[in-house]
Amino acid sequence: MKRPITVVATAAFLAALPLTAIAAPDIASRMVNHPAADQWGIFGTGEKHELVKDTTVRGGAALQVTSAGKGANPWDIQAGISNSKAVKKGDVVLLAFWGRTVTPGSASVPAVVQQAAAPYTRIGEQTLTLTPDWRLHYVTATADRDYPAGTLGVSVQLATGAQTVALGPVFLLDFGPGYDPKFLPRNIP
């Protein structure tokens, strides 16, 4: 049943974007991944995760990930996806995902757009603050080279403390070369 989640998640994402960010009919052509919450992959050890029903997030499902504590590196536990379509050098990409904390009150987590294999070259990153409320979080990047399908990854790094986070639909959007990032949405402080 991925189709209804995709349609609902896409409609919700569009509703949250500023009007200057993108024309509505164009959003589907910019997606380079499947946006449903069940598309997140979990990497690392010392975590527990499960897909749960959650009617308070767009799409009605969330991936809950629990970390027992701070790791040696924030990426010791991470949730991620990779591109299912090619991204070309110079393309401006936007990572957008629904996220919140389940426990504690808030959590600081890095979100990264990077090469999906070693040396994991980062092309965009931002440390985000997740709160108990569902919010869309964003990271903008510009491709430093061509990325065939499966070679550009995004991750939310969760080994930053003892916490449970919920991750909803995730979007990786390709706006092509020359797109001005100032027209893309930004995180609310």
Polypeptide structure, described:
InterPro entries: Galactose-bd-like_sf. This is CBM-cenC domain-containing protein. Keywords: Signal. It comes from Asticcacaulis taihuensis. It is globular and about 40 Å long. The protein is mainly β. The termini are far apart. The N terminus is likely disordered. The strands form two sheets. The chain has a five-stranded antiparallel beta sheet with strand order 1-4-9-6-7, with no helix packed on it. It has a five-stranded antiparallel beta sheet with strand order 2-3-10-5-8, with helices on one face. It has a single domain, classed as Galactose-binding domain-like (Jelly Rolls), CATH 2.60.120.260. The chain contains two helices and ten strands.
Short description:
By secondary structure, this protein is mainly β. The chain is 10% helix and 44% strand.
H/E element order:
HHEEEEEEEEEE
What is the CATH architecture annotation?
Sandwich
The percent range for strand residues is 35-45%
Structural class of the helix and strand makeup? Answer: mainly beta
Under CATH at level 1, the class stands as Mainly Beta
Specify the helix fraction band.
10-25%
Residue-averaged pLDDT, rounded?
87
The best one-word shape is globular
CATH superfamily: Galactose-binding domain-like
Number of strands: 10
Domain unit count:
1
Largest sheet properties: 5 strands, antiparallel
Rg (C-alpha, Å) = 15 Å
Distance between the termini: 35 Å
Unreliable segments of 5+ consecutive residues = 1-15, 18-25
Number of helices: 2
CATH topology value: Jelly Rolls
Strand order of the largest sheet: 1-4-9-6-7
Signal peptide: 1-23
Keywords: Signal
Protein name: CBM-cenC domain-containing protein
InterPro entries: Galactose-bd-like_sf
